[in-house]
Design a protein that fits this description.
The complex is a heterodimer of chains A (93) and B (501). Chain A is of the alpha+beta class. Chain A has a single domain, classed as 3-Layer(aba) Sandwich (Glutaredoxin), CATH 3.40.30. Chain A is 38% helix and 17% strand. Chain A is built from 4 helices and 4 strands, in the order E-H-H-E-H-E-E-H. Chain A has a 4-stranded mixed sheet, with helices on one face. In chain A, strand 3 and strand 4 form a beta hairpin. Chain B is of the alpha/beta class and 501 residues long. Chain B folds into 3 domains: 128 residues; 57 residues, Alpha-Beta Plaits, CATH 3.30.70; 262 residues, Fe-only Hydrogenase (Larger Subunit), Chain L, domain 3, CATH 3.40.950. In chain B, helix 1 crosses helix 14, helix 2 packs across helix 3 and helix 10 packs across helix 16. The two termini of chain B are 40 Å apart. In chain B, 51% of the residues are buried. Classes of the chains: A alpha+beta (93), B alpha/beta (501). Chains A and B meet through helix 1 and helix 2 of A and helix 1 and helix 14 of B.
């Protein structure tokens, strides 16, 4: 799974850094635990301003998870998307 | 930075960028009320019980960001009331710096021992047995502490086998290292200005976002757009604060795009502080003074001055990096204005001091600068820059992190007096600083160099930072290594006349 976090000015101001920190923390802890799909990889990429905030107000922070864009992304939302994907092969839905 | 308080942090920052936008666009301040609707649109509440209170609180935040005092509900008139007094292109800042936004404060109960659901109403009930005031009774379902009798000794808590008794303190008071949080007649927090040293801890810790400092971004921007020659000096902790992909050189370029002539690292002044403090230490300790405290953290300095007047003389007389750096610029540009940009709010107070006010014209935080970048649509990470910043030495840049100041001074002492063995202690957090100074007063720190930092982690943990301290630490270290000057003595930017001796 690839997560792209916009680290432009607006997104940094609105907490992009805390989303990156949470994802890095997930990578170091939960994703190593039993139950996570061993084939699952998490790639965290930081991107320069994606331009979303210039098109419309109040959309930061912006995060793209496997091509799907999340505006006004929150750390709990992104973490849950990642975790769902990491655990889906093991845990019954 | 309290990094998990997302909503509170975001509201604060949106206010800064709104004020910066208003200032740059020369919008009419009498229309400030409109801004509360821009920031809190619609009719559904997101943060508090209703949208009206949300707007009222953000209105007070806007006023504080303009430099006005916080008002109570009794005083809350038109939002633009008194606005003419701050609509100027010069510093208008007056204490108090840190205040409680009374209409946002939830009047949390003060310190108490409380019985939780963990109570099993056990047969042994040691809580009742150890209470020296008979404040504990065993009621129908659990033990109950009579708060009017309780003297808060905590014995019930330590004896309970179920960890059913908690010691509770409201977050603002718990975070204050100098007991400056009192209650007003409605039980709301009130800051005792005689005790407060403006460290900003309570601002970060209040879970209702009810405490704020004042900003001077508006007046700074009016000074810039008015055509004044403004220089910025930026604290060593700036690295990594303005976007994970932004280099230090791009931060400087971004600041210049704001209309500021040029930027200098405060690390340059830190080098002068190192040279002077090392010199001062070998001259005075232990013959003339028993120990020496560092001088760069203003809250620490103020705490010692207020609480330990008898040992206040043992704090270094060297100026702070902010003052040396500003002096460095004003020597060649006597008519310019200097803005200090840092992680710290107590620098706003330091800048009002008699011996500092002519050097530093404005103080803003990294968060406030970020608001200015956003207001102007500046993306520092996208600016093409050439060359590297070379204002400061490795150890001058290290001032950003707790322990960095003592490290720099000790290394310098080794250079000038290799035979001298000096022990240093680095203290982070205001409450710890107070404890250490109590010991120092008793003579238990004699011969030592004491580095006091009001913020945990040092400056990278300051209330005006944008990113978490752990990430900032890495960025600061990486930038420090790139300095061409290993020692502050090698710093080519410091003229001979400014060096001690």
């Amino acid at each position: 799974m690839k997560v792209v976090v916009c680290v432009g000015s607006n997104c940094t101001m609105m907490g992009a850094d805390s989303i990156i920190a949470s994802l890095e923390n997930l990578k170091d802890t939960l994703l190593q635990k039993e139950g996570a799909n061993p084939a699952f990889t998490l790639e965290i990429e930081m991107a320069r301003c994606l331009g979303e905030c210039k098109k419309k107000n109040a959309v930061s922070p912006v995060v793209i998870v496997d091509g799907e864009m999340y505006r006004n992304a929150s750390r709990e939302q992104i973490m849950s998307v990642v975790l769902d994907a990491a655990y889906e092969y093991i845990l019954p839905k | 930075m309290k990094e998990f308080y997302n909503d509170i942090i975001n509201i604060r920052r949106m206010v800064f960028s709104a004020i910066a936008r208003i200032a740059y666009n020369d919008e009419d301040l009498r229309r400030l009320g409109d801004e509360t609707y821009n920031l809190i649109p619609g009719e559904k509440a997101h943060y508090r019980e209703n949208v009206f209170r949300e707007r009222a609180v953000i209105g007070e935040r806007l006023r504080l960001a303009l430099g006005l005092d916080a008002r109570t509900a009794a005083e809350t008139g038109p939002i633009s009331e008194g606005i003419e007094s701050i609509d100027v292109a010069a510093r208008v800042y007056t204490p108090p710096l840190v205040s409680v936004i009374k209409i946002a404060c939830e009047a949390c109960p003060t310190r108490a021992f409380l019985v939780t659901d963990n109570c099993r109403k056990c047969l042994a009930h040691p809580c009742k047995n150890v209470c020296p005031k008979n404040a504990v009774t065993i009621e129908k379902t659990q033990a109950v502490i009579d708060q009017s009798k309780c003297i808060k000794c905590g014995r019930c808590k330590s004896e309970c086998p179920f960890q059913a008794i908690v010691e509770y303190e409201r977050p603002c008071a718990a975070s204050c290292g100098v007991n400056a949080i009192k209650s007003d007649y409605l039980g709301r927090a009130e800051i005792d200005d005689d005790k407060c040293v403006a460290c900003g801890n309570c601002i970060q810790e209040c879970p209702f976002g009810a405490i704020s400092d004042k900003s001077e971004i508006y007046q700074l921007i009016k000074t810039i757009t008015g055509g004044a020659e403004v220089y910025a000096i930026i604290a060593p902790s700036f690295v990594g604060q303005f976007g994970a992909l932004t280099t230090p050189e791009q931060v400087f370029a971004g600041i210049r795009q704001l209309g500021i002539r040029d930027v200098v690292e405060v690390g340059l002044g830190a080098d002068l502080t190192t040279l002077n403090e090392a010199h001062e230490f070998v001259e005075t300790v232990p013959e003339k003074e028993p120990f020496m405290g560092t001088s760069c953290c203003f809250s620490w300095k103020l705490m010692v001055e207020k609480n330990f007047p008898e040992i206040n003389d043992y704090i270094s007389e060297s100026s702070t990096p902010m003052v040396y750096t500003s002096h460095h610029i004003k020597k060649t540009h006597p008519d310019c204005k200097v803005v200090f940009i840092g992680p710290c709010i107590s620098k706003k107070l330091e800048a009002l001091q008699e011996n500092v006010k002519d050097y530093v014209d404005f103080v803003i935080t990294f968060e406030e600068l970020m608001g200015m970048f956003v207001a102007k649509g500046i993306e520092p990470a996208e600016i093409e820059v050439a060359g590297a910043i070379t204002d400061a030495s490795v150890t001058g840049r290290g001032y950003a992190v707790g322990g960095g100041v003592a490290d720099a001074v000790i290394k310098r002492i080794r250079e000038i007096r290799p035979e001298m063995q000096v022990k240093a202690e680095c203290i982070e957090g205001l409450a710890e600083c107070v404890k250490t100074m109590r010991l120092a007063k008793l003579g238990l720190k004699n011969g030592m160099l004491l580095e006091g930092m009001a913020c945990k982690h040092g400056c990278i943990g300051g209330p005006g930072t944008v990113v978490a301290a752990a990430r900032a630490r890495k960025s600061v270290a990486g930038f420090a290594e790139k300095s061409p000057y290993k020692s502050p003595a090698d710093n080519q930017n410091i003229s001979e006349e400014d060096r001690p001796e």
